[in-house]
Amino acid sequence: MPPVEAGRPSVTPAAAARRVNRRGQATRDAMLDAAISSLASGDPASVSGNRIAKDIGATWGVIKYQFDDIDGLWAAVLHRTAEQRGDLPVSVKPEAPLGERVEAIIELMYEGLTAPESRAIETLRAALPRDPDELRRLFPKTAAEFASWGPSWTESCQRAFADLDVDPERVREVAAFLPGAMRGLVSEKQLGSFQDQVLARRGLARAIVALLAPARFG
Q: Where do the record's region annotations for Disordered lie (predicted)?
């Protein structure tokens, strides 16, 4: 066994493995971030394993080693965007009244839907099969990642209003329509709408508050 150099501790196999794992994770994360950047361009041609490999300066073999196949790559890209997005509604101030919480969520979503991660998701979604059964058949990992977002989003919305006297069923209704409504507003902005976007967001917030606010009688 070779002597250990004085003043330098030996590296255990476990520590060496952790270093390798950290480097591997860093490489994987860098690939995913580069893939998101490429998809965020909005170019339909970017939804290609070979195109992503070219854009990030790697070979398809390297990407396949990291993600197994194109389905694994897209699923990992989606998971990475979810990590970066975080638990959106719960980031709202817990002590805020109902109206402020709703307005804050809408503003956060409005800003977030213009971020590169959201543009990457839209580019990817536009290129994938529209039919859920076909998506599950051709891209099972990607479909599973998409499917996990619905329950997670609904649970986040429930937690955002958990301490208020609101009907959980109505919160689920809001969770169901809000992403689509916000994408519509963002799309209008990107297309150059003549509508007042601030007014539109305020009106949507007030409609949601009216839906969630406890009924008052007497």
A: 1-23
CB atoms within 10 A of CB 7: 5
pTM for this entry = 0.78
What amino acid occupies position 67? F
Reduced to 3 states (helix: H, G, I; strand: E, B; else coil), residue 76 is helix
How many CB atoms lie under 10 A from the CB of residue 139? 20
- Residues 76-115: tens digit of each pLDDT: 999 999 888 766 665 667 788 999 999 999 999 998 898 8
Domain that holds residue 19: 15-77
Pair (144, 160) in one structural domain: yes
Same domain, 72 and 148: no
Total number of domains constituting the chain: 2
Quick one: 94 and 184 in the same domain? yes
Select from 77, 99, 123 the last residue of a domain: 77
Per the rule left: phi > 0, alpha: psi between -120 and 50, beta: everything else, 47 is beta
Q: Answer whether 73's CB lies under 8 Å from 188's CB.
A: no
